[in-house]
Every structure is written in C-alpha cells, then in structure tokens.
C-alpha cells in the first residue's frame, strides 16, 4: 500500500467505517494531490454481472454506425453509458456502501448527497480526450472564499467516486490525471472553454501526469477540479467504470453547484432535501430515478448521514439508462418503450 492507496480491514467492515486515522490520511491525500484509492469496496459477485451488462449494452450502441454525441464532444471510443437501473444490477454495495459513505462524509461533511450515478466505457482503440476538469471552483476569488469561511484555494464541494468493476490498468486506458492540479487557482480567471494547451507554463508546473489505475472492486475518490483526460485503450476489451458523484449539503443545485436561493426556497430545501434548483431555474425534485425493484438497496442502514437522493418508478414506467444521462435524475422515464439506445429502432 502506498500513500494514495488504502485497504479495508475486517474490523472496519464490521463497524461500517474506516478508522478515523485512515480517514485522515485519505483526506490528506485527497486535499494535497487530488485523489485517494480504497481497494476492495465492492465484491466480484456484484461487479461481474455489471461487466456483462455493460458489454452487452456497448454492442447495442454499436448496432448503429457513427459516433455517439458524447464521442463527438470528447473523443472516439469514450462512451458515456449509465449502468442499468433495475435489479439485479443496483445493489447496496454500490449505492449504500457504508465504507464508501464514511469516506464521502469525511471529505464533504454530513448531509452530503448523491447527485450522479452513471458510467463510462473506454473502448478498444479509443482516442485521446482534451484535458478537462469536471467541476469548476465553487468560489472563484480569495475574497469570496474567505467571506464564506473557506480557505484559499478552497476545498471542493464535490467528490467523484470512480468504481473499477474490473482492474483498470494503463493498457486498458486508465484515466490520465495531473495530481495537484485541482489547486490551480489560475483557472478561475479563464473564460469558458479555455484549455490548458494555451497555458503551457501552467501545465509544466503541474509536473508529469499519472495514470488513475484502480484494482477490481476499488474506488478512486477524486477531486473533480483535477485536470484529466481519457486516453487510448490499447487492449481488445471495453473497459467499463461506474461513476458516483456526491455533493456537500451546501450545494442546492441538481448538479451540485452553489446557488443563491430566495429565502423562501432556502427554507423549503432545508425541510425537503429532495428539492434542488433545476436547470430551468425552478425549484423541483432533483432526485436520481431508478426502477422500484431496487428500492431495498437504498434502504440499507445509513451510518454516516449521506442522503442517497433517489426516487423510484413502478411499472408500466421504467428507466431507460441509455438516455439523458446528464439531465434531470439521469436516465429517462419511459412507458410502452423498449429500454434501448435507439428506442424507436426497427
């Protein structure tokens, strides 16, 4: 075990939490270099059916020639593909894992909530994505951060959890990351869409990139402000990964960003944690949506005050996990329609 990689003991499993000393080491790694990996969080018995499902779903997507919308915006071979949202593919080890939630609470505080449950697949002979981050700074000036009681650079209000269903290696296209770049405050002055390629002196200061390798069943807890990119999968096997993103209790937008709410809306959100500011600007139900047969997975004991933020639909409604991964709730609720990437296909 190195200083970024941690393992779970039998005692910690019994208690449903990592020891405080280990949580502090994870927090130190996360804050200083932007990530920490915890091994063995999800058993192979849960991972294997999901791997099979992802590979089947990739075949369905490839029934249609051409690039997906996500590939057009990033790079060929990188699919934004959500995991199936019905039984037996949603298990408590995924969405109500006490060890994972103990880490999330350490990094974000109690009341953190699940805001994103999706996946991505790096296919063989994929291309190279441009460098990017997944979340901007919540406070973009030192003055604003200090006024909010934050340090500078401020800590993140969001944690990305990347679950390796099978071992993720460099050969399989492990994500390229720039450790420490999550603390690069110069980016707060850049205009929308600005790229590091235009700032070679900054990239040089970040040092050499690393590969986000993760053992099977392990989770990489990553600061989403860290610069990274998808790279080529040199193997002949698609590499799936599940992504869970958690936001701090202060984040009242469905995507986890900080917003200024009207006093009336703020009071409503305090009374009902399912309420979030939607992209439309209205206050509404910001929960993720799943088929009702997986509700028991979310009802597992909650030891760390994490809000699992899920709602459920009953037949004849179902969730099409191929569609609307980045929109409200992730996945599209449909009726009388097949769960398929091209539901109107012949």
UniProtKB/TrEMBL annotation:
InterPro entries: Fungal_Metabolite_Diox, Phytyl_CoA_dOase-like. Coiled coil: none annotated. SUPFAM superfamilies: Clavaminate synthase-like (SSF51197). Pfam families: PhyH. GO terms for molecular function: 2-oxoglutarate-dependent dioxygenase activity. This is Phytanoyl-CoA dioxygenase family protein. It comes from marine gamma proteobacterium HTCC2143.
